[in-house]
Amino acid sequence: xxxxxxxxxxxxxxxxxxxxxxxxxxxxxxxxxxxxxxxxxxxxxxxxxxxxxxxxxxxxxxxxxxxxxxxxxxxxxxxxxxxxxxxxxxxxxxxxxxxxxxxxxxxxxxxxxxxxxxxxxxxxxxxxxxxxxxxxxxxxxxxxxxxxxxxxxxxxxxxxxxxxxxxxxxxxxxxxxxxxxxxxxxxxxxxxxxxxxxxxxx
Length: 202
Prior knowledge:
By secondary structure, the chain is of the alpha/beta class. Helix content is 25%, strand content 27%.
């Protein structure tokens, strides 16, 4: 799907997602000290708002302007309005600041394979030394899940040279998958950038 396709999907429905933060994020990030966070493929912003309410400063990125406007509307007038930067960008090509984010949250984001891991390297390099990378994906064993063109969490785990992997497992979802899907399990990867500098995949 290109940028217009994502926008069209959001425009076709008054609300695409539940408005609740992803269960993996809640489970894995609730105990982290707040700092700078990057919410990759933020959609309608539930994760970004949840983080902001816990003291994080969040850069929420998505290609769909409609989704970003919905997220900003949720935050508008609340105590988190100034803590989220709603940013329209295509993360397959966009530049990211290196070594800035204490948390990079990648929740079910379809990151397409690239020969030299360019986009993935930009994401990894954006994690500050000592910062956390949190990736959630659908379990490949679930019906209808096809990662042929996209990075699986286990692929990313295999590229984390110099990182400390704290969690890498398949677990039951905390709530049902999106309407029309058969997602019952999540694959969760949580890793800390143990290097003293921004990291990249080998």
